[in-house]
Design goal:
Layout (H helix, E strand, L loop, with lengths): L2 H31 L5 E6 L9 H9 L16 H9 L4 E8 L5 E7 L2 E5 L6 E4 L4 E2 L10 E5 L7 H5 L1 H15 L1 H6 E6 L5 E5 L5 E5 L4 H19 L6 E3 L7 E2 L1
Parallel strand pairs: 1-3, 4-7, 7-8, 10-11
Antiparallel strand pairs: 2-3, 4-5, 5-6, 8-9, 9-10, 11-12
Protein name: Cell division protein FtsQ/DivIB
GO biological process, one term: cell division
Keywords: Cell cycle, Cell division, Signal
Length: 252
């Protein structure tokens, strides 16, 4: 390619960039001149949680109706500020607020996912899949496993962020994600030494799980107990089943 051809290519590329920028600026200018006529809200209920609804989101957007968005020119609407306002809600994990080609506002909300409920003397709380502590809601009650604990343990956000707490969080996620165990395990208890036990929905036995290690292996052993032992011996036969130790199930 000759020198003149290179220069022409560079000039063409430069003009293309300038033209694209001008068009984008023109489009943005036209958008700013439009007004918002409608606010569309979409809430992700992937996990069938209903902690926040359209009304709550709209109240957050409008400061309880003090500043309605409908009728406002786009140039006076701060989309990032609206996102931050929605994400300040305890049960909102992520929020996206954007403007459509028609000038209207679109809101997309993803909710937090509680995976357990911590029973406390003062006030119960939820814990989500990342170990964050969430308050209870007057609007909706999540069907998650309740956790009781020894008085010496403090199950807070700090606990669930270190390596020890992460193991308990992984155990809770396993239970939440497995349809059978989520339905069968009625309650979880953590004693002063950090050992876990479960009370089942069906049966009078206590499941002694031990520390939250080798989680998948322990549940496989427990499934053998449910499939092969209880149907033969009867659901009322045993008061405790221990899967804490490797390669053995202790039933009494």
């Amino acid at each position: 390619m000759g020198l003149n051809s290179k220069i022409k290519s560079l000039i063409f590329a430069g003009c293309s960039i300038i033209a694209t920028g001008a068009l984008a600026g023109f489009a943005s200018s036209r958008q700013d001149e439009k007004s918002c006529e409608k606010v569309s809200i979409k809430i992700d209920n992937e996990y069938n949680n209903y902690f926040i609804g359209d009304k709550e989101v709209k109240d957050l957007l409008t400061r309880e109706g003090e500043r309605k968005l409908e009728g406002l020119p786009n140039r006076s609407i701060d989309l990032k500020n609206l996102e931050k306002r929605i994400e300040a809600h305890s049960f909102v994990k992520e929020a996206e607020v954007f403007r459509g080609l028609d000038g209207n506002i679109h809101v997309s909300v993803k909710q937090n996912r509680p995976i357990a409920r911590i029973i406390r003397q003062d006030q119960d709380v939820y814990i989500d899949a990342e170990g964050n502590i969430l308050p209870l809601s007057d609007r909706y009650t999540a069907r998650v496993i309740p956790i009781t604990k020894s008085a010496s343990l403090k199950l807070d956000k700090v606990f669930f962020q270190d390596s020890t707490g992460q193991a308990y969080l992984s155990l809770l996620r396993f239970v939440e994600d497995d349809p059978f165990w989520k339905a069968q395990l009625a309650q979880m208890h953590i004693d002063g030494k950090g050992r876990v036990s479960f009370m089942p929905q069906v049966g009078e036995h206590t499941i002694e799980f031990g520390k939250p290690a080798r989680v998948e292996q322990k549940f496989k052993k427990l499934m053998i107990f449910y499939k092969e032992v209880l149907p033969v011996m009867g659901w009322e036969k045993y008061k405790r089943v221990n899967v804490e130790y490797e390669d053995q199930i202790i039933c009494e």
